[in-house]
Amino acid sequence: MDLKFFADLQQSLEEEAQRKEEIRTAVKELDKACRQLNAKLSQIHANPKGPVPSIDYSVAQEHIQVLAKLIPPHEFYRYNDLWSRTTQQAVYLVVFESYLENNGIVDNIIPKIESSLGGNDNLSRLAVNCVTVGDYDRPLLISKHVKDLSSGFQLLNLKNDAIRKRFDSIKYDVKKIEEVVYDITLRGLHNPNKRVLSDDDHQEVKNKKA
């Protein structure tokens, strides 16, 4: 029996193991860069009325280029599980920044489905933080955007996979944002010409009804 086959197989396995280790190392560096960018972009929650934090993607782009060179041609999905989550995070950062700058996702940005579904928890958080600083218009825009996104994905026949689970999570974000919008509308905060009732006013109304 020719043992050369097994020797070649062993060499192939060793090369693949080494390639996976190199990919993991590159992914760790990309993940580190994405976490730093996410921390900077998250500053918008502290000051929703302020300017959108300036983001420099050059370092992340360099790591993505390094990662791309490690993937053999026509073997995109063979190693997809090693880097897909981190690259989704990178795409999400671009999408979220675009949304903040344009109050919506611009047409020339086509995110992966997972990235489109992944940022709504941040939007629901932003809606709450906007109210705390007196920005009562943006939560209404956020509500419309998330509802439109939810309605669009309802047209798809999603199976019971990761995308379906992430889509189901939108329902909770929609509900949370609706509660914010309901409170704004109930108090008339989105209409600057409408007088907002204070706690004393509410008590006076109750006394009159009594």
Query: What percent strand?
Result: under 5%
Number of helices: 8
Structural class: mainly alpha
Q: At the first level of CATH, what is the class of the largest domain?
A: Mainly Alpha
Radius of gyration based on Cα positions: 24 Å
Gross morphology is: elongated
Mean pLDDT: 81
The figure for the number of domains is: 2
Q: From the coordinates shown, what is the CATH architecture of the largest domain?
A: Up-down Bundle
N→C terminal distance: 99 Å
The main sheet comes to: none
Q: Name the CATH superfamily assignment of the largest domain.
A: Translin, domain 1
How many β-strand runs?
0
GO biological process, one term: RNA metabolic process
Coiled coil: 6-47
GO cellular component, one term: nucleus
Keywords: Coiled coil, Cytoplasm, DNA-binding, Nucleus, RNA-binding
Describe what is shown at a glance.
Pfam families: Translin. With 210 residues, the chain is mainly α. It has two domains: 1-104, Up-down Bundle (Methane Monooxygenase Hydroxylase, Chain G, domain 1), CATH 1.20.58; 117-191, Methane Monooxygenase Hydroxylase, Chain G, domain 1 (Up-down Bundle), CATH 1.20.58.200.
How are the secondary structure elements laid out?
Layout: H1 4-41, H2 58-70, H3 80-102, H4 113-118, H5 120-132, H6 138-154, H7 162-186, H8 199-209
Helix pairs in contact: 1-2, 1-3, 5-6, 5-7, 6-7
Overview of the structural elements:
Belongs to the translin family. One of its GO terms (cellular component) is cytoplasm. Its main location: cytoplasm. This is Translin. Keywords: Coiled coil, Cytoplasm, DNA-binding, Nucleus, RNA-binding. With 210 residues, the protein is mainly alpha-helical. It has 2 domains: 1-104, Methane Monooxygenase Hydroxylase, Chain G, domain 1, CATH 1.20.58.190; 117-191, Up-down Bundle (Methane Monooxygenase Hydroxylase, Chain G, domain 1), CATH 1.20.58.200. Helix content is 70%, strand content 0%. It has 8 helices and no strands. The chain has helices at 4-41, 58-70, 80-102, 113-118, 120-132, 138-154, 162-186, 199-209. Helix 5 (120-132) runs parallel beside helix 7. The radius of gyration is 24 Å and the shape is elongated.
